[in-house]
Amino acid sequence: MAVQLPVAFLQRMEAFLGDQYDDFLVSYDNPRYAGIRVNTLKIGVREFREISPFELRPIPWCDSGFYVDESLRPGKHPYYHAGLYYIQEPSAMAPAEVLDIRPGDRVLDLCAAPGGKSTQIAAKLNGQGILVTNDISAERTKALAKNMELYGVRNAIVLNETPERIARAFPGYFNKILIDAPCSGEGMFRKDEDMARQWERHSIAKCTVMQRDILRTAASLLAPGGRIVYSTCTFAPEENEAQIAAFLEQNPAFELISLPEGRGFSPGRPDWLAMLAEKAQALPEEASVSPSALEGPEADATSRCGRLWPHLIEGEGHFLAVLQHKGETRPVSEEPAGLSAEGRSLGNSPVSRQRRGRNEPVRHPGKKAPNERELADSWRAFASEHLAAIPDGEALWFGGHVYISPVAKERLDGLKTVRPGWYVGTVKNGRFQPGHPLAAALKADEALRVLDLSLADGEAIRYLKGETLEIAESRIRRPAKIGAKGFVLVTVDGFSLGFGKWLDGLLKNEYPAGWRWT
Ligand SMILES: C[S@@+](CC[C@H](N)C(=O)[O-])C[C@H]1O[C@@H](n2cnc3c(N)ncnc32)[C@H](O)[C@@H]1O
Q1: Shared-domain flag, residues 361 and 240
Q2: pTM assigned to the model
Q3: How far, in Å, CA of 26 to CA of 46, rounded?
Q4: Of 443, 344, 351, nearest to 394 (Cα)?
Q5: 378 is in which domain, residue-wise?
Q6: Where in the sequence numbering do the catalytic residues fall?
Q7: Quick check: CB of 402 below 6 Å from ligand 1?
Q8: pLDDT tens readout for residues 299-351
Q9: Annotated binding-site ranges for S-adenosyl-L-methionine
Q10: If you take atom 13 of ligand 1, which residue's CA is the nearest one?
């Protein structure tokens, strides 16, 4: 066996799996599966299949997901830099699928970094509604923010908060919540040997307490009639069915929804809860899973949860539960509690100055924020000179940058906000300087000046490496009467890569240094 599995883990699995154990064990001799998921914010699934550089085989539980040959290095292709697909472990594509996202939803991804499932949710929202994507790890939110930008997401807010603090700012606000919970990671041992080595450290007991707290808080963030999907990448029933049974016992307003058939999901294992109940102290007291939750009707209901097994499907181990609130849905107010119309306006109103979060003044204490008018004027002037239309949404000044946010700024006061919305640029000396995320989210027909590079002659890769390119004026596609000089949206086969600044036959490269092709 290629992976060194912890002995205590194997003993547990043998006891739980019985006669399926041998097949389970053999799956560790098989190679792991690699997947990509088409980013439908940028390209349709059918369209991508027509231009895909890789052979694609559908993943049964995700319509935009495909198995690919990992040795073809999908991360090393200009289409990856254009955000056309996300590289994702196939089983990890399941939770966002069963959350049943509709454009216009208000979605919270509580444990989101590095953002695989958030990019999937954003694609399903298709630019409508709100995605609040959060992770407790400041370091990991950097990758989360970058992924939101690479995949051209316009309606997401990135937070670095505890669930409890988000619940104070957004009580009962969301109609869809994903909890991709921190867990002991048993399902990922084949993909990531480090997880196997760290199994004891991420002890099951410790994880159950975190999971219990996150689930509890999520219930207070959900609007009546909303849905929570709870997922883990572990087999341990203490972290899976037991959490769900305890949650249902304490929250009778929720019910478990069965997973769709024919997509590879195996049922949850209430019988394993009975096995836990037999063992004294199977769960730590702090996890507050009562013995009755392991044996009552809530335990029986966990057969409606889903499991993805490495010996039964092509992917790693995963657990899923769909918790539906039985209440009737009703509209949720966009306005934070107690906020006047004056407070809602952005910029430097006295109300917003007083209410500013701890994040904003700390980040750029020396910078003088332009007033609301200057900000709006410079963004509009840039947009009218460079874009076919001004994108919807109000511009706000935050930490020295201009964003278009899907929520009133005051909603974020006091929260550690990594990105309050779509970063469109900054204002320096009264002039607007566009940001890379603006370019990444634009479609070619939204920019007035476009330079299309092709894969064939290597120009796209030279651009991605940060080189200055010699470009004849005639190659800058633009409406008649508009000069070529200025910011140009650079595309590969029509899909945006970033900005360049064209002047006198040269394209100055604006592709961010940290993102370059190496
Ligand atoms: C399984 S990973 C998430 C993977 C992510 N959903 C994706 O698809 O890319 C779990 C994440 O939970 C975060 N986390 C741990 N405890 C948390 C808490 N109390 N609140 C929010 N996030 C937490 C971890 O930092 C980690 O990034």
Answers
A1: no
A2: 0.92
A3: 36
A4: 344
A5: 348-437
A6: 233
A7: no
A8: 999 999 999 999 999 999 999 999 999 988 877 766 654 333 333 333 333 22
A9: 111-117, 135, 180
A10: 111
